[in-house]
């Protein structure tokens, strides 16, 4: 199993000076003060012990209330919500809970780097299902249907999407759920970017017809509340699945860190407005980067959510890897090659706009210079096109 393409790349970046990074998929904001303060205060009060394996009941109750108020979906905090160490752990637990060795999992690509390894680590077989810019990187029910075999056990969906920033309509998602119903599949829905939706309304998958009983909803605090380092998230599903996930979690993790759970309580209670402000700022950056990239000649769909754009670099004649490597060494701009997110990411790069406007403007200037140079080089020496 290869190490993540993203990490390898950023080891190189960390050794270089004056690099403008559009690479990292994490908020540049520091966690809002009131969340940090609540954590500090909880430590002062002596909250330093293990919690229930499921997580603090107060936090599970608040998550249950939040999901009900925001999306209209009901989960019993006693036995349908599990606090996890990031959505990363939630994805791993989901796979280990539902897969038997050799079971296949449909994974729409390009996709977040951990999905296929998590399937494989649980003894499953990831089956990539390609999505394309022509359909806004939205998953097609016909393509899912064509990939189903008697061994298919689950389908992963992730909207708003990393790396494309794509959002899906409720009709798209209902069609995907219908495929899952027809073939009795689990749906693992990673909705970590639900609050970062700029256009239209986010569809929470378990609210769709026939979805609730077969869906494992994964969500967390990393992105919406700028809490990546706290490693705190949750899974919600039917009690049987949550019980299975809890057992793996109990023996491998025991519980999520108590101080992070205390911070998450504060995030839900009082930091919705902080989160909304961050989302407004991302939206400003989104518009800036999309228009900048298109002006340079790197065709770029306007993403409806998350904080990524996924422009095509085909016009340069370079491969994704070569483009990213040369952009880094020649212009000191870090982006992630599209191939880090699946083979169909060839011809694309992922740029994160979870960085300040100044950085985005400098990066765009440098990228414009690079694309200009590559264009000229390409005309002069077609043999050098990669
Ligand atoms: N899922 C997606 C789609 C992501 O983009 C990321 C992080 O980039 C994660 C999960 C990991 O989230 P967490 O920090 O909650 O483990």
Describe what is shown at a glance.
With 386 residues, the chain is an alpha/beta fold. It has helices at 5-14, 33-44, 57-71, 86-98, 115-121, 141-147, 170-182, 239-252, 258-270, 272-296, 320-331, 357-380, and strands at 20-21, 81-84, 104-109, 125-130, 152-157, 186-190, 215-220, 233-236, 308-309, 333-334, 336-337, 349-352.
Strand order of the largest sheet: 2-8-7-6-5-3-4
Order of helices and strands: HEHHEHEHEHEHEEEHHHEHEEEH
The CATH topology of the largest domain turns out to be Aspartate Aminotransferase, domain 2
Q: How would a crystallographer describe the biggest sheet? A: 7 strands, mixed
In the CATH classification, which architecture of the largest domain applies? 3-Layer(aba) Sandwich
Percentage of helical residues?
40-55%
* Cα gyration radius (Å): 21 Å
CATH homolog superfamily of the largest domain: Type I PLP-dependent aspartate aminotransferase-like (Major domain)
Distance between the first and last residues' Cα: 26 Å
Provide the low-confidence segments as ranges: 378-386
- Name the beta content range: 5-15%
Bound molecules: pyridoxal-5'-phosphate
Structural class: alpha/beta
Shape: globular
Q: Which CATH class of the largest domain? A: Alpha Beta
Number of domains: 2
- The count of β-strands is 12
- Roughly what is the average pLDDT, rounded to an integer? 94
Our count of helices gives 12
Written overview of the protein:
- The chain has 386 residues and is an alpha/beta fold.
- It has two domains: 5-30 and 273-375, Aspartate Aminotransferase, domain 1, CATH 3.90.1150; 34-270, 3-Layer(aba) Sandwich (Aspartate Aminotransferase, domain 2), CATH 3.40.640.10.
- The chain is built from twelve helices and twelve strands.
- Helix 4 (86-98) crosses helix 8.
- Mean pLDDT is 94; it is low at 378-386.
- The structure holds pyridoxal-5'-phosphate.
């Amino acid at each position: 199993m290869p190490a993540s393409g993203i990490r390898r790349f950023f080891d190189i970046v960390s050794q270089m000076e004056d690099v403008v990074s559009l690479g990292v998929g994490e908020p540049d904001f520091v966690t809002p003060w009131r969340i940090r303060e609540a954590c500090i205060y909880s430590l002062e009060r002596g909250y330093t012990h293990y919690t229930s394996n499921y997580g603090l009941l107060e936090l599970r109750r608040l998550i249950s209330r939040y999901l009900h108020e925001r999306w209209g979906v009901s989960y019993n905090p006693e036995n349908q919500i599990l606090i996890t160490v990031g959505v990363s752990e939630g994805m791993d637990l989901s796979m280990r809970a539902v897969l038997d060795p050799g079971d296949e999992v449909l994974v729409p690509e390009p996709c977040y780097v951990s999905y296929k390894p998590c399937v494989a680590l649980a003894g499953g077989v990831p089956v990539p299902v390609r999505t394309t810019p022509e359909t806004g990187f939205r998953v097609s029910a016909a393509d899912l249907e064509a990939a189903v075999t008697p061994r298919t056990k689950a389908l992963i969906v992730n909207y708003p999407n990393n790396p494309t920033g794509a959002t899906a309509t409720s009709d798209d998602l209902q069609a995907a759920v219908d495929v899952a119903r027809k073939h009795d599949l689990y749906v693992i829905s990673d909705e970590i970017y639900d609050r970062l939706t700029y256009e239209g309304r986010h569809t929470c998958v378990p609210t769709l017809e026939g979805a609730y009983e077969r869906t494992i909803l994964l969500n967390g605090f990393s992105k919406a509340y700028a809490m990546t380092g706290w490693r705190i998230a949750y899974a919600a599903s039917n009690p049987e699945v949550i019980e299975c996930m809890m057992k793996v979690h109990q023996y491998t993790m025991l519980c999520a860190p108590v101080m992070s759970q205390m911070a998450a309580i504060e995030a839900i209670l009082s930091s919705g407005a902080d989160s909304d402000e961050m989302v407004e700022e991302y939206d400003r950056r989104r518009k800036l980067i999309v228009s900048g990239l298109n002006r340079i000649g790197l065709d770029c769909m306007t993403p409806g959510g998350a904080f990524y754009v996924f422009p095509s670099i085909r016009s340069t004649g370079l491969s994704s890897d070569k483009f990213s490597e040369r952009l880094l060494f020649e212009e000191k701009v870090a982006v992630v090659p599209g191939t880090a997110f699946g083979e169909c990411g060839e011809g694309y790069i992922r740029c994160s706009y979870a960085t300040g406007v100044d950085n985005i403007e400098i990066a765009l200037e440098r990228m414009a210079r690079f694309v200009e140079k590559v264009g000229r080089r390409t005309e002069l020496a077609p043999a050098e096109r990669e």
